[in-house]
Amino acid sequence: MAVAQFFVSDSHTTVEPPQLMVSSSVAAAAAAAAPASRSSVTLTQDDLKKIAAYKAVEHVKSGMVVGLGTGSTAKHAVDRIAYLLQQGKLKDIVGIPTSSITHNQAVSLGIPLSDLDSHPVIDLTIDGADEVDPNLNLVKGRGGSLLREKMVESASKKFIVIVDESKMVKHIGGSKLAMPVEVIPFCWNHSLNRLVSLFADSGCVGELRKSGNCGKAYVTDNGNYIIDLYFERDIGDLNKASDTILRLPGIVEHGMFIGLATSLIVAGVEGITVKTKVGDDLEVDSFCYNDLRNGF
Ligand SMILES: O=C(CO)[C@H](O)[C@H](O)COP(=O)(O)O
């Protein structure tokens, strides 16, 4: 088992960690006030997201074209890339954002950006996920950016998925939370009914995603709507499900990302697990937090 070095701090803009850095007020307080209490660090879910994100950014090298994911986990990766650019530790990075939110974040941090028209092949994309199954198939899009994410990730030589351990499921749909489908606004209710009836055997229900509390439909970056599908039971063959959905007129894209991820970084309370696809196999590596108390 490999061992990760950690440095715990409140601010990632002023302190350079050995490998990873965990932002946690509990941890920072413990580190600053009482060295003896270093072992009692509590990692929040956001700390775990940051750990996974920072670990993934170790794979970003100068000169790369990098896909920038969307969501609270991917945001940490974008922050980290910007930090390393500012420090001069990364150079000549071109970012390809997967949403207008990430575009705005990257612009505000000074990351040079481009798009798929100018850079049709991306070296590496780092993005979060809502669900990850044992074969690295994903559900994405609860943040609403599934179409651009899928376009960018399917154009990437490497796609590293970064999650905290709560995202791991036995099968797609297993969290019982939404599997999003982007649809054109025209007669969205008709599309909803057709989608639900495709998966009647799996106890599927669906609803139009709404924007906040205003009751209006949520509109994606592409001007479309999202139908969230919920499954009571396993939907089985994912490729078949994907083909069936995409054959419906009015459907733009769905949030199942099948076979796109090339590796996965999962941060849990005990440590990090990295799974990398090597041919048809998955290589698994584990990093424990045992020496966290020695990292201060
Ligand atoms: O697919 C996504 C956005 O469309 C996100 O990657 C996914 O929703 C995970 O988000 P978070 O990191 O905030 O949990």
From TrEMBL:
GO MF terms held by the record: ribose-5-phosphate isomerase activity
The entry's keywords: Isomerase
Domain of life per record: Eukaryota
Gene3D superfamilies to which the protein is assigned, alphabetical: 3.30.70.260, 3.40.50.1360
Pathway membership, UniProt: Carbohydrate degradation; pentose phosphate pathway; D-ribose 5-phosphate from D-ribulose 5-phosphate (non-oxidative stage): step 1/1
SUPFAM superfamilies to which the protein is assigned, alphabetical: D-ribose-5-phosphate isomerase (RpiA), lid domain (SSF75445), NagB/RpiA/CoA transferase-like (SSF100950)
Reactions listed under catalytic activity: aldehydo-D-ribose 5-phosphate = D-ribulose 5-phosphate
EC number: 5.3.1.6
One Pfam family in the UniProt entry: Rib_5-P_isom_A
Record HAMAP family: Rib_5P_isom_A
Family in the record: Belongs to the ribose 5-phosphate isomerase family.
Protein name: ribose-5-phosphate isomerase
Organism: Penstemon smallii
